[in-house]
Amino acid sequence: MLRAGAGAFRDTTLGPSIDPISGASFNSWLFSSGEGISVSNGFSGGSTTPSGTSITPDVQQFLTGTPPGLELPTSWQWRTSLEKNARRGVASATYAGSVGRHLLGNEAYVDPTTGVLERFTTLTQNQSEYEALELRYSGSPGANIYASAAYTWPHSLDEGSEDSSVFLIHPGYQLREAWASSDFDVRHALTASVSWHIPRALESYTLPDWLRGWTLSGILRARTGFPINILTSEQSLGEQFDNAGRPDLVAGLPLWIPDPNVAGGRRLNSAAFAAAPAGEEGTLGRNAIYGNGLAQIDGSVRRSFALFASVRVEVGLTVFNLLNHPQFADPVPYLASPFFGQSVSMQNLMLGSGSPNTGLPPLFQTGGSRSAEFDFRFAF
Q1: Fewest beta carbons less than 10 Å away: which of 28, 214, 241, 267?
Q2: What one-character DSSP code corresponds to residue 352?
Q3: What is residue 83's predicted lDDT score, i.e. its pLDDT?
Q4: Are residues 323 and 223 in contact, defined by beta-carbon separation less than 8 angstroms?
C-alpha cells in the first residue's frame, strides 16, 4: 500500500512573543550613537576594530534599516510511505520531511570596540529543514512471539533551535552563517522490542505450573549522539549569545583522543581548538561536533494471576539498563574549564533535572545505572 500526504501549518501564537515578561518579541531596541547597554560577550573587549574586519552590507542593513514586520511562522510537511503486509507481520519504508519558514529568532549587535549593545530585535526570518528515512517492522515471527523494530535516518538543520536564543551580529556577519545541524539532531536511531509469552508446553515437554503464563519482554534503544557547541568559556552572567566565543579549529589534529583515565575512555582534544582573536568569530561552526551515543537494553517479566471471581492481579518486574552498561553524557564543552572534553555525568542527567523547564526527571530517562521496578495491577 502506498500512502502520501502533505500540509501547511501556521503557528498563531508566535512562541514567546505572547509572554509580556521574558518574551515581548514585538519590542525592538535601537540606541543612538554613544548610548546603549554594556554587555559581556565573546567578541568585545578590544580597543579598535579587529584587523581585517569590516562591517558587511548585512550588518549595515541590520543597524540602519527598518526591521521587517513579523510574520506567522509556517511549516510545510510531507510524508510518503510504502507498506507491505506479510503473513507474519507488516513492513514499511517512509520518507518524511518538513521545512520551516518565518521562524522566531532574536538578534543583537554589540560594538566590538566598546562592548555596548546598540541594537536588539526579534525577527521572523529563521529557517529550518528536516528529512528522514524511516524503516519499520512489526509482527509475530513465531508462535507466542511478538516483535517490532524501527530505524530512523534523519537530519535536522536550522538557524537556531530555540525561540529564546539570541544571535550576535558581529562586524563580519554574513547571512545564513548560523545554518547548521539542530541542537536535537540525531543522525541514527534504532528501537527494537521482542515479547515472548511462555506457553503451557514446549513441543512434547510440559512446563511446570510456576513457569507457565509468564511473558518475557526486552527493548533495545540505540542512537548516535547530539551535537556539541564548543565555546571558549561558559557565559554564566549577562546577555548570552548562541554564536559568541566559538574557537578556531586547528587543522590536522584529531578531535577525540583515547584516555583510560576519564569516563568513557576518550575525551576531546584541547589542542585541536584555539581561542579566536578578540572581536572575531572562530572557524569552528555551530554544532559541528557530535557527542556520545547511547545503547541500552531494558527487560521485564510479568504474569497475571486469578484471585477470586473475576478479580485478577498482574505482577511485573522491569529492569532498566539490564546489562548495567555505563552511558556517559556529552563532555564539558568550555575550553576554560579544567574538565573540558570530559564527561562528568551519566546520560540520564544530561537531558534535564525534572524542573518545569529542564525536561523529564532523570528517573524516567534512559542512560542511567541499572534500576528495577516492581508493579502490581488489579483488574475487576
Answers
A1: 28
A2: -
A3: 96
A4: no
Q: Whole-prediction pTM value?
A: 0.81
Grid coordinates in use for 138? 512489526
Residue 47 lies in a domain: yes
The boundaries of the domain holding residue 176 are 2-188+224-292+328-344
Q: Which positions ≥6 away from 78 have C-beta within 8 Å?
A: 4, 5, 6, 7, 96, 97, 98
Question: CA–CA separation, 242 vs 244, rounded Å?
Answer: 6
Q: Has residue 33 been placed in a domain?
A: yes
User: What residue has cell string 581585517?
Assistant: 52
Look at residue 212 and tell me if it is in a domain. no
Q: Which helix (H) or strand (E) holds 300?
A: strand 294-308
Q: Which residues pair with 9 in a beta bridge?
A: 75
Which residue type is seen at 333?
Answer: P
Residue 265 CB contacts under 8 Å (≥ 6 apart), including other chains: 258, 259
pLDDT on residue 235: 67
Q: Count structural domains, the chain.
A: 1
28, 121 contact by CB (below 8 A): yes
- Burial of residue 226 (number of CB atoms within 10 Å: 0-12, 13-18, 19+): buried
- CA-CA distance, 60 to 62, in Å (whole number)? 5
Is 48 inside any structural domain? yes
The three cell numbers of residue 47 are 580597543
Q: Report the pLDDT value the prediction gives residue 92, as an integer from 0 to 100.
A: 96
Mark the ranges of the chain whose per-residue pLDDT is less than 50. 18, 20-23, 25, 32-52
